Amino acid sequence: MKRIVLPVLLLIFMSVVVSAQSLEIEKIEKSSTIITEIGNPIEYTLRITNTGTTSEFEIYTFAGFTMTPEDKFTINSGETINIGVKAYANEDILETTRGSFVIEYQIRNSANEITKDKLRVNIIDLEDLLEIIVEDITPQQETAEISVRNKENLQLNDISISIISPFFESENIMTISPKETKKITIELNKEKQSKLIAGNYVSTVDIELQEEKTQTFIPFNYLEKEGLAVYTNTEGVIIRETTIEKKNTGNTALEATAIKKLNLFSRLFTTFSEKPISSSKNGFFVEYVWQKELAPGESLKIVTKTNYTLPFIIMILIILVVLAVKIYLETTLNLKKHVSLVKTKGSEFALRVVINVKAKKHLDNIQIIDRIPQMAKLYDKFGIKPDKMDPQTRRIFWNIKSLNAGEERVFSYIIYSKIKIVGKFELPAATAIYEKDGKTHEVYSNTTNFATETVESDKDIF
Predict the structure, then answer these.
(1) In what order do the strands lie in the sheet with 42-50?
(2) Domain residue spans in the chain?
(3) Using one digit for the tens of pLDDT, what is the confidence trace for 400-417?
(4) pTM of the shown model
(5) In what order do the strands lie in the sheet with 156-164?
(6) Fold that domain 228-309 belongs to in CATH
(7) Cα gap 419→267, rounded to integer Å
(8) Which option is the CATH number for 333-451: 3.30.70.20, 2.60.40.1170, 2.40.30.110, 2.30.42.10?
Protein backbone atom coordinates (compact mmCIF):
# COMPACT_ATOMS: atom_id res chain seq x y z
CA MET A 1 0.00 0.00 0.00
CA LYS A 2 1.40 3.28 -1.09
CA ARG A 3 2.04 5.63 1.76
CA ILE A 4 2.39 9.36 1.47
CA VAL A 5 3.75 10.89 4.64
CA LEU A 6 2.80 14.55 4.79
CA PRO A 7 5.35 17.03 6.14
CA VAL A 8 5.20 17.50 9.86
CA LEU A 9 3.90 21.03 10.29
CA LEU A 10 4.42 21.20 14.01
CA LEU A 11 3.49 24.81 14.40
CA ILE A 12 2.20 24.46 17.91
CA PHE A 13 -0.41 27.05 17.12
CA MET A 14 1.94 30.02 17.84
CA SER A 15 -0.02 30.72 21.04
CA VAL A 16 -2.26 28.73 23.31
CA VAL A 17 -5.24 30.94 22.49
CA VAL A 18 -6.30 31.55 18.85
CA SER A 19 -8.40 34.67 18.24
CA ALA A 20 -10.26 35.56 15.04
CA GLN A 21 -13.14 37.99 14.66
CA SER A 22 -15.55 37.48 17.62
CA LEU A 23 -14.22 34.13 18.96
CA GLU A 24 -11.34 33.15 21.21
CA ILE A 25 -10.44 29.45 21.02
CA GLU A 26 -8.32 27.43 23.42
CA LYS A 27 -7.59 23.82 22.38
CA ILE A 28 -7.16 20.92 24.82
CA GLU A 29 -5.86 17.78 23.09
CA LYS A 30 -7.35 14.49 24.23
CA SER A 31 -6.05 12.31 21.40
CA SER A 32 -4.45 13.28 18.09
CA THR A 33 -3.52 9.79 16.83
CA ILE A 34 -5.53 7.78 14.28
CA ILE A 35 -4.89 4.05 13.77
CA THR A 36 -5.57 3.22 10.12
CA GLU A 37 -7.06 -0.25 10.72
CA ILE A 38 -9.49 1.09 13.35
CA GLY A 39 -10.27 4.51 11.89
CA ASN A 40 -10.70 6.12 15.31
CA PRO A 41 -11.15 9.91 15.40
CA ILE A 42 -8.91 12.56 16.85
CA GLU A 43 -10.48 14.23 19.89
CA TYR A 44 -10.13 17.77 21.20
CA THR A 45 -11.95 19.93 23.71
CA LEU A 46 -12.42 23.49 22.44
CA ARG A 47 -12.88 26.24 25.04
CA ILE A 48 -14.65 28.95 23.03
CA THR A 49 -15.37 32.48 24.25
CA ASN A 50 -17.81 34.62 22.26
CA THR A 51 -16.61 38.23 22.46
CA GLY A 52 -19.22 39.34 19.93
CA THR A 53 -22.99 39.16 19.79
CA THR A 54 -25.08 36.10 20.60
CA SER A 55 -25.17 33.79 17.60
CA GLU A 56 -25.50 30.21 16.34
CA PHE A 57 -22.28 28.49 15.24
CA GLU A 58 -21.34 25.44 13.21
CA ILE A 59 -17.98 23.66 12.90
CA TYR A 60 -16.62 21.95 9.75
CA THR A 61 -13.49 21.24 7.68
CA PHE A 62 -12.56 20.74 4.02
CA ALA A 63 -9.38 18.73 4.79
CA GLY A 64 -10.73 15.23 4.02
CA PHE A 65 -12.16 14.75 7.52
CA THR A 66 -15.68 14.62 8.94
CA MET A 67 -16.15 16.63 12.14
CA THR A 68 -18.61 16.35 14.98
CA PRO A 69 -20.74 17.85 16.35
CA GLU A 70 -22.61 18.35 13.09
CA ASP A 71 -25.48 20.31 14.70
CA LYS A 72 -25.34 24.04 15.26
CA PHE A 73 -24.77 25.38 18.77
CA THR A 74 -25.45 28.76 20.41
CA ILE A 75 -22.97 30.90 22.35
CA ASN A 76 -24.31 33.99 24.06
CA SER A 77 -22.39 37.24 24.01
CA GLY A 78 -19.53 37.08 26.54
CA GLU A 79 -20.19 33.40 27.25
CA THR A 80 -17.47 30.70 27.35
CA ILE A 81 -18.37 27.09 26.63
CA ASN A 82 -16.43 23.82 26.39
CA ILE A 83 -17.32 21.69 23.39
CA GLY A 84 -15.88 18.29 22.51
CA VAL A 85 -15.03 17.80 18.84
CA LYS A 86 -14.02 14.72 16.89
CA ALA A 87 -12.54 14.48 13.38
CA TYR A 88 -12.78 11.25 11.33
CA ALA A 89 -10.41 10.76 8.39
CA ASN A 90 -11.98 9.59 5.13
CA GLU A 91 -10.90 6.33 3.42
CA ASP A 92 -8.50 8.03 0.99
CA ILE A 93 -6.62 9.70 3.86
CA LEU A 94 -6.43 6.41 5.77
CA GLU A 95 -5.06 4.56 2.73
CA THR A 96 -2.48 7.06 1.52
CA THR A 97 -1.34 9.22 4.42
CA ARG A 98 1.02 8.45 7.29
CA GLY A 99 2.76 10.71 9.78
CA SER A 100 2.09 13.92 11.69
CA PHE A 101 0.50 17.02 10.11
CA VAL A 102 -2.13 19.68 10.81
CA ILE A 103 -5.61 20.21 9.35
CA GLU A 104 -7.57 23.43 9.18
CA TYR A 105 -11.12 23.65 10.49
CA GLN A 106 -13.57 26.54 10.49
CA ILE A 107 -16.29 27.88 12.80
CA ARG A 108 -19.00 29.98 11.12
CA ASN A 109 -21.65 32.09 12.86
CA SER A 110 -25.13 32.99 11.63
CA ALA A 111 -23.73 36.18 10.05
CA ASN A 112 -21.41 33.99 7.91
CA GLU A 113 -18.34 35.25 9.76
CA ILE A 114 -15.67 32.53 9.77
CA THR A 115 -13.01 31.76 12.35
CA LYS A 116 -10.20 29.44 11.17
CA ASP A 117 -7.97 27.28 13.35
CA LYS A 118 -5.84 24.13 13.11
CA LEU A 119 -5.71 20.71 14.75
CA ARG A 120 -2.73 18.37 14.91
CA VAL A 121 -3.19 14.85 13.46
CA ASN A 122 -0.91 11.79 13.56
CA ILE A 123 -1.84 8.77 11.39
CA ILE A 124 -0.13 5.41 12.02
CA ASP A 125 -0.62 1.68 11.41
CA LEU A 126 -1.45 -0.66 14.28
CA GLU A 127 1.98 -2.29 14.00
CA ASP A 128 3.64 1.07 14.77
CA LEU A 129 1.59 1.78 17.89
CA LEU A 130 3.80 -0.04 20.41
CA GLU A 131 7.51 -0.40 21.07
CA ILE A 132 8.17 -3.89 22.45
CA ILE A 133 11.60 -4.91 23.76
CA VAL A 134 12.57 -8.42 24.89
CA GLU A 135 15.61 -8.18 27.15
CA ASP A 136 18.57 -10.52 26.49
CA ILE A 137 18.38 -13.85 28.33
CA THR A 138 21.23 -15.54 30.21
CA PRO A 139 21.40 -19.23 31.22
CA GLN A 140 21.05 -18.22 34.90
CA GLN A 141 17.72 -16.39 34.47
CA GLU A 142 14.41 -17.84 35.63
CA THR A 143 12.23 -15.19 33.96
CA ALA A 144 12.22 -13.03 30.83
CA GLU A 145 11.64 -9.27 31.05
CA ILE A 146 9.58 -7.55 28.34
CA SER A 147 8.76 -3.86 28.13
CA VAL A 148 5.75 -2.53 26.20
CA ARG A 149 5.64 1.22 25.50
CA ASN A 150 2.66 3.11 24.11
CA LYS A 151 4.36 5.52 21.70
CA GLU A 152 1.26 7.67 21.10
CA ASN A 153 -0.97 10.10 22.99
CA LEU A 154 -3.82 7.60 22.87
CA GLN A 155 -5.54 5.62 25.59
CA LEU A 156 -5.39 1.87 24.84
CA ASN A 157 -8.08 -0.16 26.57
CA ASP A 158 -8.17 -3.96 26.54
CA ILE A 159 -5.32 -4.38 24.08
CA SER A 160 -4.31 -8.03 23.63
CA ILE A 161 -0.60 -8.89 23.32
CA SER A 162 0.45 -12.50 22.67
CA ILE A 163 4.20 -13.29 22.71
CA ILE A 164 5.66 -16.65 21.62
CA SER A 165 9.34 -17.69 21.50
CA PRO A 166 11.38 -20.88 21.97
CA PHE A 167 11.87 -19.85 25.64
CA PHE A 168 8.40 -18.73 26.72
CA GLU A 169 4.79 -18.05 25.80
CA SER A 170 2.57 -15.30 27.18
CA GLU A 171 -0.88 -13.82 26.58
CA ASN A 172 -1.79 -10.48 28.13
CA ILE A 173 -4.80 -8.16 28.00
CA MET A 174 -3.97 -4.76 29.42
CA THR A 175 -4.81 -1.09 29.45
CA ILE A 176 -1.98 1.31 28.60
CA SER A 177 -2.20 5.05 29.12
CA PRO A 178 -0.73 7.51 26.60
CA LYS A 179 3.09 7.34 26.52
CA GLU A 180 3.07 4.73 29.31
CA THR A 181 5.57 1.83 29.52
CA LYS A 182 4.51 -1.44 31.12
CA LYS A 183 6.74 -4.34 32.16
CA ILE A 184 5.84 -7.99 31.63
CA THR A 185 7.64 -10.75 33.52
CA ILE A 186 7.35 -14.25 32.00
CA GLU A 187 8.61 -17.49 33.51
CA LEU A 188 11.10 -19.30 31.25
CA ASN A 189 10.58 -22.89 30.15
CA LYS A 190 13.77 -24.33 31.62
CA GLU A 191 13.30 -27.73 29.94
CA LYS A 192 13.27 -26.13 26.47
CA GLN A 193 15.98 -23.66 27.44
CA SER A 194 18.40 -26.48 28.39
CA LYS A 195 18.29 -27.77 24.78
CA LEU A 196 18.85 -24.41 23.09
CA ILE A 197 22.23 -23.13 21.96
CA ALA A 198 23.42 -19.57 22.41
CA GLY A 199 22.60 -17.16 19.61
CA ASN A 200 20.02 -14.72 18.33
CA TYR A 201 16.33 -15.62 18.47
CA VAL A 202 13.04 -14.03 17.44
CA SER A 203 9.77 -13.79 19.35
CA THR A 204 6.46 -13.59 17.49
CA VAL A 205 4.12 -10.90 18.82
CA ASP A 206 0.40 -10.80 17.93
CA ILE A 207 -1.41 -7.56 18.78
CA GLU A 208 -5.20 -7.17 18.78
CA LEU A 209 -7.14 -3.96 19.44
CA GLN A 210 -10.86 -3.54 18.82
CA GLU A 211 -10.91 -6.78 16.77
CA GLU A 212 -8.11 -5.53 14.47
CA LYS A 213 -4.96 -7.66 14.42
CA THR A 214 -1.33 -7.31 13.40
CA GLN A 215 1.83 -9.36 13.85
CA THR A 216 5.42 -8.30 14.43
CA PHE A 217 8.72 -10.02 15.24
CA ILE A 218 11.02 -8.92 18.08
CA PRO A 219 14.68 -10.12 18.14
CA PHE A 220 16.57 -10.90 21.32
CA ASN A 221 19.79 -12.68 22.33
CA TYR A 222 20.43 -15.81 24.35
CA LEU A 223 23.85 -15.11 25.81
CA GLU A 224 26.57 -17.77 25.77
CA LYS A 225 28.03 -16.29 28.91
CA GLU A 226 26.83 -13.32 30.76
CA GLY A 227 27.71 -10.49 28.44
CA LEU A 228 28.69 -12.63 25.39
CA ALA A 229 26.25 -12.59 22.46
CA VAL A 230 26.62 -15.09 19.62
CA TYR A 231 25.43 -14.44 16.04
CA THR A 232 25.61 -17.04 13.26
CA ASN A 233 24.34 -16.84 9.69
CA THR A 234 24.78 -19.06 6.61
CA GLU A 235 23.81 -18.02 3.07
CA GLY A 236 24.14 -19.44 -0.42
CA VAL A 237 24.25 -22.90 -1.95
CA ILE A 238 26.97 -23.03 -4.61
CA ILE A 239 28.94 -20.24 -2.92
CA ARG A 240 28.22 -20.87 0.76
CA GLU A 241 29.14 -18.11 3.19
CA THR A 242 29.01 -18.58 6.96
CA THR A 243 29.42 -15.72 9.43
CA ILE A 244 30.26 -16.36 13.09
CA GLU A 245 30.30 -13.31 15.36
CA LYS A 246 30.79 -13.21 19.12
CA LYS A 247 30.32 -9.83 20.81
CA ASN A 248 31.12 -8.86 24.37
CA THR A 249 27.95 -7.12 25.56
CA GLY A 250 29.02 -7.16 29.19
CA ASN A 251 31.25 -4.81 31.15
CA THR A 252 34.32 -7.00 31.70
CA ALA A 253 36.95 -8.40 29.35
CA LEU A 254 36.56 -12.04 28.30
CA GLU A 255 38.03 -14.57 25.89
CA ALA A 256 35.87 -15.67 22.96
CA THR A 257 36.42 -18.86 20.94
CA ALA A 258 34.96 -19.62 17.51
CA ILE A 259 35.05 -23.12 15.99
CA LYS A 260 34.33 -24.20 12.40
CA LYS A 261 34.27 -27.84 11.30
CA LEU A 262 34.73 -28.76 7.60
CA ASN A 263 34.94 -32.11 5.82
CA LEU A 264 38.03 -33.02 3.81
CA PHE A 265 36.31 -32.20 0.52
CA SER A 266 34.81 -28.79 1.36
CA ARG A 267 38.01 -27.56 3.03
CA LEU A 268 39.70 -27.63 -0.42
CA PHE A 269 37.35 -24.87 -1.63
CA THR A 270 37.09 -22.80 1.59
CA THR A 271 38.72 -19.47 2.48
CA PHE A 272 38.69 -17.61 5.81
CA SER A 273 38.47 -13.90 6.63
CA GLU A 274 41.08 -14.50 9.37
CA LYS A 275 43.74 -17.16 9.74
CA PRO A 276 42.80 -19.72 12.46
CA ILE A 277 45.17 -20.12 15.40
CA SER A 278 44.94 -23.91 15.14
CA SER A 279 43.46 -26.77 13.13
CA SER A 280 43.11 -30.47 13.93
CA LYS A 281 42.06 -33.44 11.81
CA ASN A 282 39.56 -35.93 13.16
CA GLY A 283 38.61 -38.67 10.68
CA PHE A 284 37.00 -37.09 7.64
CA PHE A 285 36.74 -33.67 9.28
CA VAL A 286 39.07 -30.79 10.08
CA GLU A 287 38.32 -28.45 12.99
CA TYR A 288 39.51 -24.83 12.84
CA VAL A 289 39.77 -22.64 15.96
CA TRP A 290 39.93 -18.86 16.45
CA GLN A 291 40.39 -17.10 19.78
CA LYS A 292 40.42 -13.44 20.82
CA GLU A 293 40.42 -11.43 24.03
CA LEU A 294 37.43 -9.10 23.83
CA ALA A 295 37.11 -5.81 25.67
CA PRO A 296 33.56 -4.57 26.35
CA GLY A 297 31.84 -3.81 23.04
CA GLU A 298 34.45 -5.68 20.92
CA SER A 299 33.61 -8.56 18.57
CA LEU A 300 35.26 -11.65 17.12
CA LYS A 301 33.91 -12.02 13.58
CA ILE A 302 34.88 -14.88 11.28
CA VAL A 303 33.59 -15.27 7.72
CA THR A 304 34.15 -18.57 5.89
CA LYS A 305 33.38 -18.89 2.19
CA THR A 306 33.14 -22.26 0.44
CA ASN A 307 33.00 -21.98 -3.37
CA TYR A 308 31.54 -25.11 -4.99
CA THR A 309 31.43 -23.59 -8.50
CA LEU A 310 34.20 -25.77 -9.99
CA PRO A 311 33.04 -29.11 -8.54
CA PHE A 312 29.45 -28.18 -9.45
CA ILE A 313 30.41 -27.59 -13.09
CA ILE A 314 32.37 -30.86 -13.17
CA MET A 315 29.41 -32.72 -11.65
CA ILE A 316 27.01 -31.24 -14.25
CA LEU A 317 29.35 -32.26 -17.09
CA ILE A 318 29.60 -35.80 -15.72
CA ILE A 319 25.81 -36.02 -15.45
CA LEU A 320 25.38 -34.76 -19.02
CA VAL A 321 27.90 -37.31 -20.34
CA VAL A 322 26.22 -40.13 -18.42
CA LEU A 323 22.79 -39.09 -19.72
CA ALA A 324 24.10 -38.87 -23.29
CA VAL A 325 25.62 -42.35 -23.06
CA LYS A 326 22.47 -43.71 -21.46
CA ILE A 327 20.26 -42.23 -24.18
CA TYR A 328 22.55 -43.57 -26.89
CA LEU A 329 22.63 -47.06 -25.38
CA GLU A 330 18.86 -47.10 -24.88
CA THR A 331 18.12 -45.96 -28.45
CA THR A 332 17.07 -49.05 -30.40
CA LEU A 333 16.38 -47.36 -33.74
CA ASN A 334 18.50 -44.76 -35.51
CA LEU A 335 16.76 -42.47 -37.98
CA LYS A 336 18.82 -40.15 -40.18
CA LYS A 337 17.65 -37.80 -42.89
CA HIS A 338 19.66 -35.91 -45.52
CA VAL A 339 18.97 -34.11 -48.80
CA SER A 340 20.79 -33.36 -52.05
CA LEU A 341 19.99 -31.08 -54.98
CA VAL A 342 19.01 -32.61 -58.32
CA LYS A 343 18.94 -30.83 -61.67
CA THR A 344 15.74 -30.80 -63.73
CA LYS A 345 15.21 -30.19 -67.45
CA GLY A 346 12.70 -27.46 -66.73
CA SER A 347 15.03 -25.75 -64.20
CA GLU A 348 12.64 -26.47 -61.34
CA PHE A 349 14.08 -26.54 -57.83
CA ALA A 350 14.24 -30.21 -56.78
CA LEU A 351 15.67 -32.15 -53.82
CA ARG A 352 16.25 -35.84 -53.25
CA VAL A 353 15.35 -36.75 -49.66
CA VAL A 354 16.97 -39.88 -48.23
CA ILE A 355 15.91 -41.49 -44.93
CA ASN A 356 18.19 -44.14 -43.39
CA VAL A 357 16.63 -46.52 -40.88
CA LYS A 358 18.88 -48.81 -38.84
CA ALA A 359 17.81 -51.12 -36.00
CA LYS A 360 20.14 -51.79 -33.08
CA LYS A 361 17.86 -54.56 -31.79
CA HIS A 362 15.07 -56.67 -33.25
CA LEU A 363 11.96 -54.52 -33.76
CA ASP A 364 8.44 -55.16 -35.03
CA ASN A 365 5.76 -53.12 -36.81
CA ILE A 366 7.87 -50.11 -37.78
CA GLN A 367 6.22 -47.19 -39.50
CA ILE A 368 8.25 -44.37 -41.08
CA ILE A 369 6.45 -41.03 -41.48
CA ASP A 370 7.72 -37.93 -43.25
CA ARG A 371 6.04 -34.67 -44.18
CA ILE A 372 6.29 -32.77 -47.47
CA PRO A 373 6.94 -29.01 -47.05
CA GLN A 374 3.96 -26.82 -47.95
CA MET A 375 5.57 -25.11 -50.94
CA ALA A 376 6.90 -28.35 -52.52
CA LYS A 377 5.33 -31.09 -54.67
CA LEU A 378 6.06 -34.82 -54.57
CA TYR A 379 7.61 -36.43 -57.65
CA ASP A 380 5.85 -39.73 -58.51
CA LYS A 381 9.00 -41.87 -58.62
CA PHE A 382 10.45 -43.37 -55.43
CA GLY A 383 13.27 -45.54 -54.25
CA ILE A 384 10.68 -47.60 -52.31
CA LYS A 385 7.10 -46.59 -52.96
CA PRO A 386 5.24 -45.36 -49.85
CA ASP A 387 2.50 -47.58 -48.43
CA LYS A 388 0.28 -44.57 -47.87
CA MET A 389 0.11 -40.90 -48.85
CA ASP A 390 -2.18 -38.41 -47.09
CA PRO A 391 -2.70 -35.32 -49.30
CA GLN A 392 -4.49 -33.39 -46.54
CA THR A 393 -1.70 -33.63 -43.99
CA ARG A 394 0.99 -33.92 -46.73
CA ARG A 395 2.45 -36.97 -45.00
CA ILE A 396 3.86 -40.14 -46.56
CA PHE A 397 4.10 -43.53 -44.79
CA TRP A 398 6.29 -46.62 -45.17
CA ASN A 399 5.49 -49.77 -43.18
CA ILE A 400 8.15 -52.30 -42.19
CA LYS A 401 6.98 -55.55 -40.65
CA SER A 402 10.21 -56.13 -38.71
CA LEU A 403 13.92 -55.34 -38.58
CA ASN A 404 16.66 -57.51 -37.17
CA ALA A 405 19.52 -56.12 -35.13
CA GLY A 406 21.90 -54.28 -37.45
CA GLU A 407 19.47 -54.35 -40.39
CA GLU A 408 19.17 -51.12 -42.36
CA ARG A 409 16.61 -49.77 -44.82
CA VAL A 410 16.86 -46.72 -47.07
CA PHE A 411 13.85 -44.75 -48.31
CA SER A 412 14.08 -41.90 -50.78
CA TYR A 413 11.80 -39.56 -52.68
CA ILE A 414 12.05 -36.34 -54.67
CA ILE A 415 10.30 -33.06 -54.05
CA TYR A 416 10.27 -30.10 -56.42
CA SER A 417 8.94 -26.58 -56.72
CA LYS A 418 8.41 -24.27 -59.68
CA ILE A 419 9.02 -21.33 -57.34
CA LYS A 420 12.65 -20.28 -57.33
CA ILE A 421 14.14 -20.90 -53.87
CA VAL A 422 16.77 -18.47 -52.63
CA GLY A 423 18.71 -19.03 -49.41
CA LYS A 424 18.12 -21.85 -46.90
CA PHE A 425 15.37 -24.44 -47.45
CA GLU A 426 14.54 -26.39 -44.26
CA LEU A 427 12.81 -29.78 -44.03
CA PRO A 428 11.11 -31.16 -40.89
CA ALA A 429 12.28 -34.24 -39.00
CA ALA A 430 11.02 -37.68 -40.01
CA THR A 431 9.28 -39.91 -37.44
CA ALA A 432 9.54 -43.63 -36.73
CA ILE A 433 6.96 -45.53 -34.66
CA TYR A 434 7.74 -49.11 -33.66
CA GLU A 435 7.02 -51.86 -31.15
CA LYS A 436 9.53 -53.33 -28.71
CA ASP A 437 8.76 -55.69 -25.83
CA GLY A 438 5.05 -55.09 -26.34
CA LYS A 439 5.37 -51.29 -26.00
CA THR A 440 5.08 -48.59 -28.64
CA HIS A 441 8.03 -46.21 -29.04
CA GLU A 442 8.63 -43.12 -31.13
CA VAL A 443 11.89 -41.60 -32.39
CA TYR A 444 12.71 -38.63 -34.60
CA SER A 445 15.38 -37.98 -37.18
CA ASN A 446 17.45 -34.88 -37.45
CA THR A 447 16.01 -31.82 -39.18
CA THR A 448 17.85 -30.96 -42.36
CA ASN A 449 18.20 -27.89 -44.54
CA PHE A 450 19.61 -26.99 -47.91
CA ALA A 451 21.31 -23.75 -49.06
CA THR A 452 20.39 -23.38 -52.74
CA GLU A 453 23.28 -21.09 -53.61
CA THR A 454 25.98 -23.51 -52.44
CA VAL A 455 25.27 -26.92 -54.07
CA GLU A 456 24.51 -27.91 -57.65
CA SER A 457 23.99 -31.28 -59.36
CA ASP A 458 24.58 -32.33 -63.01
CA LYS A 459 21.84 -35.00 -62.96
CA ASP A 460 18.65 -34.40 -64.96
CA ILE A 461 15.57 -36.22 -63.64
CA PHE A 462 12.59 -34.61 -65.43
Answers:
(1) 17-20, 23-31, 42-50, 80-89, 65-68
(2) 4-124, 126-222, 228-309, 333-451
(3) 888 888 888 999 888 888
(4) 0.50
(5) 169-176, 156-164, 199-209, 212-222
(6) Immunoglobulin-like (2.60.40)
(7) 67
(8) 2.60.40.1170
